[in-house]
Write a structure and sequence with these properties.
alpha+beta; 3 domains; six-stranded antiparallel sheet; four-stranded antiparallel sheet; 45% helix; elongated
């Protein structure tokens, strides 16, 4: 009987030991769970803190850049202020010089009046006589008008073209250019054609169209026939088109040239 009781006592003690062991294990698990939770929370807080520190550093860097820009702008303002002050000083100096110059002008003694001389007024194709009254004797000077003035356009250029036999298809230099001629002084007139840009020469000469300083246009007969013969065209008469007579004026044949005196 005593052995049975001892066995029961031992069983009860074993059960208590197992119970306490389970309780202890449970407590250990709870403690571990609490520790892990706290560690995770601490890690998250540390990560948040690191992020905040990084943001703070970025913000400080941006503030530093803005500070540099503000400093640069302040320097620019100072430079501009100095420039304005310098300009104001120059203006004051110029004003003083001008004022002193005015006073000096007032202090000058009056000078004797010079006799008034009328200047000649030049008009095309007219002669103007002027009388100078500087001396008791009268001087007469004759001013000759430029015969080329009426022929020049707004660009001071003399433009002209030649029309053969009244045909719209026989305008020079266009007719010659269509047949391979190189005309260095040709100008596109914007109306499906070309004009000569003529430079005045001393006399009627050469193998290309021109104008003399006296206002006489000329076109060599050989020049016209060279290109008309390419197409078997004839040459009966020539009209010249120029400023003041774009409708055409009949040229006369003189020797080897067709000529037109624009002053008549």
């Amino acid at each position: 009987m005593k052995k049975v009781k001892d066995v029961k006592v031992i069983e009860k003690r074993g059960k208590k030991i197992v119970l306490w062991a389970c309780i202890g294990a449970g407590l250990v698990i709870i403690v571990l769970a609490i520790v892990l939770f706290c560690n995770n929370r601490t890690i998250k807080q540390e990560s948040s803190l690191i992020t905040c520190l990084n943001d703070k550093n970025d913000l400080l860097a941006k503030l530093s850049e803005q500070g540099k820009k503000i400093s640069s702008l302040e320097n620019t303002v100072l430079v501009l202020t100095d420039s304005i002050d310098l300009l104001n000083a120059k203006n004051e100096l110029i004003l003083k010089i001008c004022q002193s110059g005015k006073r000096a002008t007032v202090a000058k003694k009056p000078t004797a009046k010079k006799p008034i001389v009328k200047k000649p007024v030049v008009k095309p194709a007219t002669q103007i006589i002027t009388i100078s009254a500087t001396e008791p004797k009268y001087e007469v000077s004759v001013v000759t008008a430029d015969p080329l003035a009426p022929l020049r356009d707004s660009n001071e250029e003399i433009l002209a073209c030649a029309r053969v036999d009244g045909s719209r298809d026989k305008h020079f230099p266009h007719y010659a250019i269509d047949r391979g001629a190189i005309v260095n002084n040709a100008r596109d007139n914007g109306r499906y054609g070309y004009n000569y840009v003529l430079t005045p020469v001393e006399s009627i000469s050469g193998n290309v169209p021109g104008v003399t300083k006296d206002g006489i246009f000329f076109v060599p007969v050989s020049y016209l026939k060279r290109y008309l013969n390419m197409s078997g065209e004839s040459l009966k008469y020539v009209d010249l088109l120029y400023k003041g007579n774009w409708g055409g004026a009949r040229m006369t044949l003189q020797g080897g040239y067709y000529v037109l005196d624009s002053t008549k």
